[in-house]
Amino acid sequence: MNLILWRHAEAEYGVPDLERGLTDKGRQQADAAAKWLRLYLNGRVEVWASQALRSRQTAEALGLPYTVKPKLNPINRVEELPALIAAHKRADYLILVGHQPWLGQLCGYLLNGSWLSGQYWSVRKSGIWWFGVKVDEVGRLCAKLKAAMTPQLLLPGD
Predict the structure, then answer these.
(1) H/E/C letters for each residue in the chain?
(2) Which residues fall within 8 angstroms of residue 117, CB to CB, at 6 or more apart?
(3) Torsion angle of alpha carbons 43, 76, 19, 57, nearest 10°?
(4) Could you give the angle at the alpha carbon of 82 between the alpha carbons of 154 and 89, nearest 5°?
(5) Sign of CA dihedral 150, 47, 85, 22
(6) pLDDT (tens digit, 9 = 90+) per residue, 113-156?
(7) How confident is the model at residue 63, as a pLDDT?
(8) Beta-ladder partners of 97
(9) What's the confidence (pLDDT) of residue 71?
(10) Taking burial as the number of CB atoms within 10 A of a residue's CB, which of 11, 30, 52, 126 is the most buried?
């Protein structure tokens, strides 16, 4: 399976946190990332987004149906996500639209094969980390990084 981790695009400041929407720049970032992703999606695609408005608006840029998953909210237990991903077998591409720090923690887990306490990779707003993922015989995720895209590569001059 292809697992694509996509951080929400730039959002407005404010509270409540889950109601912060994308800025104009954020909409441009989300559109550019979605355009790039659509070039490579050629199979069954499932998109999951957190409950946060900024995450849902980023997912909407793809123009595909998406499912809201509270487990992807800004503050969650990232350790629960590998089992959720491993149990998912319905799509060729699973796209998770979410937040730091759990996106970076999940990247670290996928790249290292274990949790490094308090450490995570930096995932820029509207950044994409694309992994090829297999599930081993005991249900662990085995991943290889296929691509990492930043908004600067997708939007020249950003």
Answers:
(1) CEEEEEECCCECCCCCHHHCCECHHHHHHHHHHHHHHHCCCCCCEEEEECCCHHHHHHHHCCCCCCEECHHHCCCCCHHHHHHHHHCCCCCCEEEEEECCCHHHHHHHHHHHCCCCCCCCCCCCCCCEEEEEEEECCCCCEEEEEEEEECHHHHCCCC
(2) none
(3) -10
(4) 85
(5) positive
(6) 777 666 778 899 999 999 999 988 887 888 999 999 988 888 76
(7) 97
(8) 6, 49
(9) 94
(10) 126
Single-letter amino acid code for the residue at 133: V
| Contact by Cβ (8 Å): 99, 55 | yes
**Contact of 141 with 133, CB cutoff 8 Å:** yes
Report residue 66: phi and psi, to 5°.
-140, 160
